[in-house]
Design goal:
The protein contains one helix and six strands. It is of the alpha+beta class and 124 residues long. It has a three-stranded antiparallel β-sheet, with no helix packed on it. A hairpin with a 4-residue loop joins strand 3 (63-73) and strand 4 (78-89). The radius of gyration is 24 Å and the shape is elongated.
Length: 124
């Protein structure tokens, strides 16, 4: 009887250990997007803000793609835009990318400091 209790306790302990060490669901890569520069440009009667940003792979798996969302403030309104890109970033490395937000009215000017900020990001 004691031997069967010991075996049962061992099986329960082994099951708990296996459960604790198993990953539940897919492991997504982790990264950090940072705005490194902005400038406004006029083209064909439209004004836009060009956002230059860096994505750092802060995790241990390769980043194959990602979406970074930005907030831009002008003298008239706020804009929200997302930029999705495919790239290959090894752990500990970074890539540089560009996104753009076209203003509704060509006379708007960015007034927020900084002109653009990262509000959300995710990576696959």
């Amino acid at each position: 009887m004691n031997a069967s209790k010991a075996i049962a306790a061992g099986i329960v302990a082994l099951g708990a250990l296996l459960f604790a060490t198993c990953s539940i669901g897919p492991a997504y890569p982790t990264g950090k997007a940072t705005v490194i520069g902005t400038y406004e440009q006029d083209y064909a009667g439209e004004r836009s803000l060009v956002i230059q940003y860096r994505v750092d792979n802060t995790g241990t798996t390769v980043i194959e793609s990602g979406t970074v969302s930005f907030k831009v403030g002008t003298d008239a309104r706020e804009y929200y835009a997302s930029s999705s890109k495919a790239y290959r970033i090894l752990p500990g490395h970074e890539v540089y990318a560009t996104a753009g937000v076209t203003y509704r009215v060509a006379t708007e000017t960015a007034t927020a400091v900084p002109a653009a900020e990262v509000v959300d990001e995710f990576y696959e």
